[in-house]
Amino acid sequence: MRQIAIVGAGQSGLQLAIGLQRAGYVMTVISAQTPQQIADGRVTSSQCMFASALAHERDVQANFWDDTCPPVSGIQLTVATGEAQKAFEWAARLDAPARSVDQRVKMPRWIEEFSRLGGNFRVQQAGVVELEQLAQEHDLVIVAAGKGEVAALFTRDEVNSPFAKPMRALALTYVQGLRPREDYSAVCFNLIPGVGEYFVFPALTTSGSCEIMVFEGVPGGPMDCWTDATSPHKHLETSLAILKQFLPWEYDRATRVRLTDANAILSGRFAPTVRKPVASLPSGRPILGMGDVVCLNDPITGQGSNNASKCAASYLKSIVSHGRGDFDPAWMNKTFVNFWEYARMVTSWTNGMLQPPPPHAVQLLAAAAAKPSIASWFANGFNDPARFGPVLADPAATERFINAAA
Fold first, then answer.
1. Which residues, at least 6 apart from 135, have a Cβ–Cβ distance to it below 8 Å?
2. 349, 385 in Cβ contact below 8 A?
3. Phi, psi of 82, deg, nearest 5
4. Which residue among 44, 89, 257, 281 has its CA within the 20 to 30 Å range from the CA of 250?
5. CA distance 126 to 107
6. Which residues pair with 74 in a beta bridge?
7. Could you name the CATH architecture of 72-100+165-268?
8. pTM to 2 decimals?
9. 339-378 residue pLDDT tens
10. Domain over 3-63+102-162+271-353 is classified CATH 3.50.50.60
């Protein structure tokens, strides 16, 4: 039986590990933390997952929260002015609900399932020395997490990494007590040109249902203000101050919020980066990168966990279909290319959202406020962002699309 090791116990690594374990592979997963440490730790992401990504979880029988996680039934988009007013707004239902499960809930449960299926779960730091040992013991080593010397093994793809520095100051705030949106639940996106973005949506956390506030501030601007938010209380105060100043309609919903727990906050920044998928250890043995290791996008489009799920599904298919073939660098590169055919379009759209939008993109968003069919098309594009590319390719394509919707 083929033996595979995965370094990293996140969305992509564990989803792939469970799928391969069910397919009959001998699996090892390396994690820097125990399940209890993950559960007791700080929040790590916002992870709103749309229908196709959720379907991949169901495919490996890891969908344990369909009945307990509050659904996200739609998308609402508001473009604000600098004077705390709405330029325009629209909302549309999703064809199938999205869901967000706190990784402090999801990953311990997935580790439990992986172990129940007979997988070998190890808690250890994985540096180059440990990777060499894993490569000796296994037919294939996949790196789905890693910093420092491990991440440095994977070469930056300069062509597909246009940003050398962070494009947003990021912050998460998990809260309870937010007044629900009327009509139906939704991801409420708020775009403030020149300032940043704010979105909020329902989720499931360690203490039950909650809402996740996501802040994306343009570096050096008024939403780049998290340095002094050194305590949970100050972090929440900063979150509310931003809403009160720029998005008073969102502040009105949040006047009675409280943090879900003391670890319900996160702030930081990173440069979106694509890396080459194959790295060589000092011994010459190749290892394969996946997930954020090779395709790290800014969370502005909410695609991080969706990409991770789709990467796991793509790799699962490539591994199983490869049978007894060698896991050599050529196969590794082909495996990533199969996923990159999809991920490159998501990356392009996400990187585009980090820059001032061209007039035809604003025209499309504004048209959605007048034409429900465009609003529905755009909302459901979060499930498959590949649809955005042809329409946003140039002003003429956007105009043709808007005219056709009329």
1. 141, 281, 283, 285, 287
2. yes
3. -70, -10
4. 44
5. 18
6. 93
7. 2-Layer Sandwich (3.30)
8. 0.96
9. 999 999 999 999 999 999 899 999 999 999 999 999 999 9
10. yes
